[in-house]
Specification:
The protein contains eight helices and eight strands. It is of the alpha/beta class. The strands form three sheets. A four-stranded parallel β-sheet has the order 4-2-5-6, with helices on both faces. Strands 1-3 form a two-stranded parallel sheet. Helix 4 crosses helix 7. The longest helix has 14 residues.
């Protein structure tokens, strides 16, 4: 078990149960799309963000990104960290069929993968300080690396996302958030310059 300072925001009760198997701390579920109408729950998340910060940990499918986007619009950026799970094909044990996009969600991830996602997002872990250090990547850096602004930048971003196991639905801004949550600036510069195999 790890003790995390920030409140972790997940989509549903199965995600919450999975994260609670790893984290000693506050885990809040959005109730899926209910968060769009639930003012009280949104107010709770706002208060948690202001008091201790929040880490958004949603599935890497369309629904997860919609919820992540809504939360990002409602909360000050300096109070939110984004943890991304890798794109992994499969289905959760409790389900008869895979999700519409055929990807595992938070509940289907290993505890090790979840811990790595939280650490890469910069979770403040008791006894471990800030987990991710280093300078942050900017939009200008993406431009210099050819990941935005160039005619083939969309394709280059997709190839990098696939190589890094990042969700395929990321925009340039979403990619920037994910990269800052998962890697140091130096690591990304190296990865972006590596020849593709």
């Amino acid at each position: 078990m790890i003790r995390v300072k920030e409140a972790i925001v997940v989509e549903g009760r199965y995600d919450k149960a999975k994260v609670m198997g790893l984290v000693e701390g506050i885990v809040i579920e959005t109730g899926g799309f209910q968060i769009f109408q639930d003012r009280q729950r949104m107010e709770l998340i706002r208060r948690m963000a202001a008091q201790r910060g929040v880490i958004v940990l949603t599935d890497s499918d369309g629904a997860g990104f919609l919820i992540r986007s809504k939360l990002s619009q409602c909360l000050p950026p300096n109070q939110v960290k984004h943890a991304y799970i890798p794109d992994v094909a499969g289905k959760e044990r409790r389900k008869a069929r895979p999700s519409k996009e055929g990807k595992l969600g938070v509940e289907g991830m290993s505890l090790q993968a979840l811990e790595e996602s939280l650490r890469r997002a910069g979770a403040e872990i008791e006894g471990g300080g800030l987990s991710k250090a280093g300078e942050r990547l900017t939009k200008a850096d993406l431009y210099q690396l050819g990941l935005s602004g160039a005619p083939d930048s969309g394709e280059r971003r997709k190839r990098l996302q696939k190589r890094l196991g990042l969700p395929e639905r990321l925009s340039a801004n979403g990619l920037l958030q994910a990269l800052n949550g998962l890697y140091t600036k130096e690591e990304i510069e190296e990865l972006a310059m590596e020849p593709e195999k």
